[in-house]
Amino acid sequence: MVTTSGASGRIAVDAMGGDLGPAEVVAAVKLALHQFATLHPNTLVGDEAVLRPQLAQARLDGEPRQSVFHATEVVGTLRLRTMEGVARPALAAICPRQGGHFVLIDAGANPDAKPEHLVHNAILGSHYCRVMLGIKSPKVGLMTIGTEEGKGNALITETNDQLRRVGDVINYAGPIEGFHVFAEHVDVVVCDGFVGNIMIKSWESLVKFFSTMLKEELQSNPLRATGALLSKGAFSALKERINPERYGGAPLLGLNGNILKAHGSSNRQAIKNAIRAANEMIKADMNHRIEADILRANELLAAQPAAT
């Protein structure tokens, strides 16, 4: 887990909670410090007696941007309040699509959402998309079962109406269906945490299934194996495009501070990229910008009557 403090801009990294141990986390911090010249100061949280020798071995014991906060136990759940105006936080995930990547939100934090929660998700996801994917005006789509007006359940119908009413705040492209998700159609896919969690886990399992099946087919005879060898560069590029380590972790957005959750099995590349993501959020002053847009959206919803 990687967290940031809005007051100091310091990045805190849980050094003890990963499956690969603190040495892998220290290696990730070393990569981040060497690769990102404008990296904010970071603090490794964990057992100092374990971490100090690891830092010395990595030649980071004298690094001014690096410190240690001693904790005798694995870091538990951090208790951060939601930022002003946000009712529920949301988990964001970056997924590959045709021509690039998109942000899926909510990926599982809030399975019982109300329309205003999904409107907030759209704003949270838009800002995260701007920071991490560099898209100035992300197109936002609302996940449903059909693009015709009135398609979907009561939650979708009301959310669609509210998203259209806050058009000054987000670039809303309207409802989308499943076959739009991985096409070059929208940059942010909005849904509740129940749908989003099913989507992200189904996508991850499907990638593993096709990878295994492709490997089996390519090794089925010598001719195919030769073709696979000749196509090694293309397969490596494809693997990099769908690699979940590319962005390192999924942020829990909408809190007074940033939390990025990484898989327990995350390696140094994934942790390094999570640190980079936290750094980019600080540099972009993302949370203050989110608060301003949330306030504006809430004002618009309060001032405008709902569609009848």
SSE diagram, text form:
Blueprint (H helix, E strand, L loop, with lengths): L1 E3 L6 E4 L7 H14 L6 E5 L1 H10 L8 E5 L19 E8 L2 E6 L9 H19 L5 E5 L10 H12 L5 E6 L11 E3 L2 H26 L3 H9 L1 H10 L8 E4 L4 E4 L6 H16 L2 H18 L5
Helix pairs in contact: 1-8, 3-4, 3-9
Structure commentary:
The chain has 308 residues and is of the alpha/beta class. It is built from nine helices and eleven strands. Helix 3 (115-133) packs antiparallel against helix 9. It is globular, with a radius of gyration of 21 Å. The mean pLDDT is 85.
Instruction: Choose one word for the global shape.
Output: globular
Distance between the termini: 45 Å
Low-confidence regions = none
Q: SSE string, helix = H, strand = E? A: EEHEHEEEHEHEEHHHEEHH
Largest sheet: 11 strands, mixed
* Count of DSSP-assigned helices: 9
- As a percent range, the share of strand residues is 15-25%
Give the fraction of residues assigned to helices: 40-55%
| CA radius of gyration | 21 Å
Computed structural class: alpha/beta
Number of strands: 11
On the 0 to 100 scale, the average pLDDT is: 85
**What spatial order of strands do you see in the largest sheet?**
4-3-2-1-11-10-5-6-9-7-8
